[in-house]
Every structure is written in C-alpha cells, then in structure tokens.
C-alpha cells in the first residue's frame, strides 16, 4: 500500500501554471453588455445585430437543453435559442 501512494501525484505541490486572472470591474468594458431587445428574434438576426455593434465579440449560439461551461469571458456572448431557433433569453457578455 505504501508503494501505491508513491504512484499517486502529489496534489499538494504548487502548480507551475500561472494563476487565473482576477476580473477587474473598476474598468468595465465599453459599450453594451446585454441585448434584451433581441429576445424573440432569430439567432442569425441577433448575431448580426451584436456583430454590428461589437464585431470583436465571439458569438456562441446555444440550442435548447445544451450544457455550457460556467467560465466568464468578456469577449463572448451566448445566444440561447428555443426549439424554433428564436432567442429565448437576453444575450449578454460572459
């Protein structure tokens, strides 16, 4: 059993990777952070409108009942759609 514990990685050692960045809300991104007016539009229409305002953003169209990560990214907008392909909830940065 002592030999088995030697095979396990030492989880208490510090990682060589850099720490995750802390979000600094003292300097929020310029412009809109959400688009409530897009609810009910098609995903394509919503994507086009967001890209017109902020072309640098990455748009992700999320089908119904899809799993997504919980990370927060200021360069990303998720567009959650219903079964008919219409925007189901307010798209926002993150």
TrEMBL record:
The keyword Transferase does not apply. The keyword Transferase does not apply. It comes from the Eukaryota. GO terms for molecular function: serine-type endopeptidase inhibitor activity. GO terms for biological process: response to wounding. Residues 1-28 are annotated as: Disordered. InterPro entries: Prot_inh_pot1, Prot_inh_pot1_sf. Belongs to the protease inhibitor I13 (potato type I serine protease inhibitor) family. This is Subtilisin inhibitor.
